[in-house]
Write a structure and sequence with these properties.
Length: about 525
């Protein structure tokens, strides 16, 4: 609890954010300092070659930023016509990285200190090295096994031919130089200067078609937010191309159930949440993509009358299978920070699956994401691969408002877990009154592809049996899914300050003064 506070998935990043607050920066400056540091100290979840989204309460209004990049202009459906699915790694998964442009835009619009000043900790850790934590070391080892043969990966991230072990010192001088270039040019070198040239030339040498024009044309968008009411508060999410709308659909469905009459963590309450999430995902996967390609408007998917019809599909005593409805036509890190002047920010950035594509640009430390792998190949689908399109995104920042005032900024990492995590954080904090740390620590569940239910090992056996009796096919947290439930960070306003929670599933840390 503090008047000024930062919560991230890594203690060194949290410390970097607090240092900036102490030097006169505001919440946005602190979040950006933490974000830049995470690129260095948690490369298993983010990098300069990733994307970002943010929601900012500036003291008087809520602002949503979409800093996800678009596909190359040459990514026509025909380019991928011989494939049955989009590739999962390599050069043909790389869309234009948006995170650096997002940092620059946030600093330009809301920052109090110089842009270059937010990079001090990140550059120092990249130059001098940092001790790799046990959690990151484990993830690093898994990713090195998978991506070690991708161009540039081993040279950058496998010194001595292997991933660094817990406690070992790891530095990345090439990344430090890239961070300095970005800091000195307010990000322009990444899109129009020497870094852009290196990215384009290397991807091209591998057979990719990312161009200088693709990089130079990249712009983040101030897109506002979309929202749904739940228990007297409003959850705000970034509009599509993100999956935040799935959390809003699920919450809207729950408003038409009797969940408020049930006990926290009861099997009946969990069953309703799971079924609502399954319905929300069915709608999302059918209707959501780049806003310019969607035939169904977000407002139609969130219409209370439509959500009432979707809620009616839930059998309170039996698990179901759900198809998309037809409304009327119309590896990730998370950071949150708040300051004593009332500014709050919910910021998320990612290279997508671990290190992303596995492609690392030589002599830059820039690991490029694989966000393009989330396009689909189905003709006419709103998320069909195409030129200059944003793919469906998993990373989503959350923000809760009450009566027009900010209440909570939060996020849950972990691919398709994120919308499900938002739902679980909302019902715990807003329906059952749990504080941010209690909500973060509670055992989680997630719906898998095919409708199977994965649960964490500390979920009580009696609850598991009851869920099984409801007809849910349960898989219990195998070792390879140890990080599949993500990590969560939350900051909630209290009288005269804030209370923060940070997740034990990663190396989460909250700090303030």
């Amino acid at each position: 609890m503090a008047r000024n506070i930062v919560s991230t998935s890594q203690p060194l990043a949290t410390q970097a954010g607090v240092d900036v607050l102490r030097k006169g920066g505001n919440a946005v400056d602190a979040a950006l300092a933490a974000a830049a540091t995470l690129v260095v100290v948690e490369p298993t979840g983010c990098g300069l070659g990733g994307d970002a989204f943010a929601i900012v309460w500036d003291g008087s209004s809520l602002n949503g930023l979409n800093a996800s990049g678009r596909s190359p202009a040459e990514w026509t459906p025909e380019r991928f016509s011989a494939l049955s699915d989009m590739p999962g790694e390599g050069f043909d998964t790389i869309t234009v990285p948006g995170v650096v442009a997002g940092w620059a835009e946030l600093s330009r619009s809301f920052g109090r200190i110089e842009f270059a000043d937010i990079f001090q900790s990140a550059i120092e850790y990249a130059e001098r090295g940092y001790h790799v934590s046990p959690t990151i070391a484990k993830l690093w080892s898994v990713e090195a096994e998978r991506l070690g043969r991708q161009p540039g990966f081993a040279e950058c991230f496998m010194p001595g031919g292997r991933a660094p072990r817990a406690g070992e010192l790891f530095g990345n001088p090439a990344l430090a130089a890239s961070l300095r270039s970005i800091a000195d040019t307010h990000g322009r070198s990444f899109y129009e200067g020497p870094l852009a040239k290196k990215i384009v030339e290397f991807v091209g040498s591998l057979g990719g078609c990312l161009s200088c024009e693709d990089m130079a044309e990249n712009r983040p968008d101030w897109c506002g937010t979309i929202a749904a009411e739940f228990e007297g508060v409003h959850l705000h999410e970034i509009p599509p191309n993100g999956q935040g709308i799935a959390a809003l659909i699920a919450l809207g469905i729950l408003e038409h159930t009797n969940i408020a009459d049930l006990e926290v963590d009861s099997a009946a309450a969990l069953h309703l949440q799971i079924e609502a999430m399954k319905i929300a995902f069915a709608d999302m996967h059918a209707h959501v993509g780049d806003m310019a390609s969607m035939r169904i408007a977000p407002d139609d998917l969130l219409d209370p009358e439509y959500l009432s019809t979707r809620a009616a599909l839930i059998d309170p005593e039996q698990a179901g299978e759900f198809r998309a409805g037809v409304p009327k036509a119309g590896g990730t890190v998370y950071i949150t920070a708040a300051d004593e002047n009332g500014m709050m920010i919910s910021l998320i950035q990612s290279n997508y699956r671990g290190f992303g594509s596995g492609v690392v640009v030589p002599d830059t430390g820039i690991s490029l994401h694989n966000r393009g792998s989330d396009f689909v190949l189905s003709d006419g689908h709103p998320n069909q691969v195409g030129p200059k399109k944003r793919p469906l995104h998993t990373i989503i920042p959350g923000f809760v408002m009450r009566n027009g005032s900010p209440l909570m900024s939060f996020g849950v990492m972990g691919g398709g877990m994120q919308a499900q995590g938002h739902l679980q954080m909302m019902v715990r904090t807003q329906l059952w009154g749990q504080n941010p740390q209690a909500a973060s620590d509670a055992p989680r569940w997630r719906v898998q592809d095919g409708g199977k239910l994965m649960v964490e090992r500390d979920m009580p056996n009696g609850t598991l049996q009851s869920l099984s009796d409801f007809g849910h096919c349960i898989l219990q947290d195998p070792p390879e899914a140890a990080f599949g439930f993500g990590g969560a960070q939350l900051i909630q306003r209290i009288d005269g300050g804030y209370i923060a929670g940070s997740d034990h599933r990663k190396d989460g840390a909250a700090a303030g003064f």
